[in-house]
Write a structure and sequence with these properties.
Layout: H1 7-38
Length: 49
């Protein structure tokens, strides 16, 4: 069954899917990288970026 939707509704659904991917895949990887960096001594300030 197909349901008619407004363009903003379709865009909203895509934004939700994108946010879920970020939450499940991207953020855990970024957090893991941050924790790994915290466990190491930075050699200079560029290591913090």
């Amino acid at each position: 069954m197909l349901v008619d939707v407004e363009p903003w509704e379709a865009e909203w659904c895509l934004e939700i899917v994108e946010a879920l991917f970020d939450h499940v895949f991207v953020l855990p990887a970024k957090n893991r990288e941050r924790l790994e960096r915290l466990g190491q001594e930075p050699s200079d300030s560029t290591d913090l970026n």
